[in-house]
Amino acid sequence: MQVVGVTTQQEVYVVSRERKFRINEILVIEDPALNHPRGEVVETLSYNRLIPMGLDRSLVDTQVIRSLEQIGYDIGSDELNLAKLRLFSEAPHPVRTGCPVREPRFDEVRGLLVKTTPAEGMVLGEIRGTEALADTLDEDLRDQVHIVEDGAMRPQSGVPFLFDIRAMQQYPHIGIFGGSGSGKSFGLRVMLEELMKLGIPTVVFDPHFEMDFSETVPELEAYAPDFTNRWVAVQIGQHVGIDFSSLSTRDLQGLLGAAGGSVTESMVNVVQMLHRKKDSFRTFSDRLNNVAQALEEGKQGLERRLHGGDIDPVEAEKLKDLLTLYQQYNSLPLSSLKGVQWRLNRLEKAGLFQQDIRPIERALEQGRLVVVQGSAWLLQVFATYVIGALYRKRREYKDARMNGEDGRFFPPFLIVTDEAHNFAPKGVDSPAKAILKEIAQEGRKYGVFLVFATQRPTLLDETITAQLNTKFVFRTVRGTDIATLREETDLTPEEGKRLPYLRSGDTFVSSAVFGRTVFMRVRAAYTRSPHVTNPFEELQSIRQEQDENVLNVLLARLPLFDTDLLDAVTHVNRECGLRWDVPRLKQELDRLAAEGRIAKKESPLATRYDAVR
Ligand SMILES: Nc1ncnc2c1ncn2[C@@H]1O[C@H](COP(=O)(O)OP(=O)(O)OP(=O)(O)O)[C@@H](O)[C@H]1O
């Protein structure tokens, strides 16, 4: 291998007759005057005489070809491999043309590729293009990952990609971007496994109900850490919720805003007038309902009932209270009261006020990963509250320490979410946005970090995007998203061009920690989501199971006549948990007969179904 063509301080072309170049591999240029600079292959090309004019002009210009001829290559008959090598650091003067080029030993490039140890960092995958370094790899970096490629699992064959979690103190927050099916969720799962391994307190918002770590991938049983006590899943309304009495008036306004529809000025006014500190859900909603009733009946209506005679003293007392409320609040529009009532009831019906967030706090204090599950809208409402509450706890502890007080310990933690653009959308307001922006900007001071995944970087709030110091960029096809990612990362034009063609699971990691982009393949996850079955296979197996059950019940009752199916349908329904009527049973019998699983004989009087002989 040697340098050819016109060189610059940043880039050179390298040629080889025998060796094919791998994209992203690292090579050493033996130019002693420049202290043997190292570079990464950013484009490759094989040149064959059968396609004499097929050279890609973006890669090789006539200068290169001329120089190849000058140093003895026969352009007409040799097959030549060419690569564009980008130097890691700019050279003080251009590289000498003709310099020999060689593969590095691992110790020469370790500093560029590995920033931590497998025990301390997140072991996320394998760096692409590092196969040639496998032989000289340090012992502690061998056999760290398995890779699934082309449907098969293989052991590690290059350098593992380790992410130094401690560097987040300096370079906080992670973004994970990629189109549908690009491997984003898979990458998130691997990251969460590593956080569990390291015992880092983490809250994950899981709108897809897919983050479950109880099922180990069979091939990796021998390698998978035991995650049993490392994570817990909680459902909003069932295990966790909001302690209403801890809400401030502002919190409550925020929650109502998240419950759906827009909250008008006048509704905000209603909440400000009616909410009292330490109100329980009951006290607040009773007050709200009473005021609404008072306004609905009006002063005259209430007085008419009060003085209409024939009412018991309790009722009279109540009417007087309502009259007082009327006098106090008759300036509030009834429609706004109703708006607040509707939103409050929606939250209550979802079970939001029946629990509190203690299970989450407890799990974080134990260094666990907490998966919070709920429907998309409820998750947003709850996330706003829980993130605010947890962040406050951590901040209070750190601030107390800073002031020399003891404070109650609350751990640093990570907040992880897929579909992050729903939580913090660009250009439009959302309930969680204010607190997430604050964490994006200030969280580092307190040890609170974000891991945000989204298919649509263009739709994510730009202040937050700019604060994501490490970005994992998976396959992205949409032009606007590619443009956003190009702007927000140090991806080169060549890398940008590759984005639409990346395989699922391959990703560029653009990180301030590395100071450059690293291309890697996410490792095989130890665990898998319980519902990874193909929906069509699921459909087929459910059908088969149902057919078996129904046939079992029917076989004992054959022969059956279509004129007398009532008894059979009752049995089938009871024993198979179905709700068929007689026509439906007849349709199913006809289908089973058509499939040859039972026999069917028609006569002028009735159709007879029987066992197949
Ligand atoms: N690193 C990997 N190694 C092996 N297979 C992978 C890898 N990453 C992803 N895959 C496979 O690719 C498919 C798509 O991955 P994944 O579900 O993570 O996509 P996604 O980007 O999250 O898409 P969506 O946003 O639509 O959920 C999955 O079937 C997964 O098994």
From TrEMBL:
One of its GO terms (molecular function) is ATP binding. Residues 158-483 form the FtsK domain. CDD domains: TrwB_TraG_TraD_VirD4. ATP binds at G178, G179, S180, G181, S182, G183, K184, S185. InterPro entries: FtsK_dom, HerA-like, HerA_central, P-loop_NTPase. The keyword Transmembrane applies. The chain crosses the membrane at residues 369-391. Pfam families: DUF87 (PF01935). This is ATP-binding protein. It comes from Polycladomyces zharkentensis. The lineage of its organism: Bacteria, Bacillati, Bacillota, Bacilli, Bacillales.
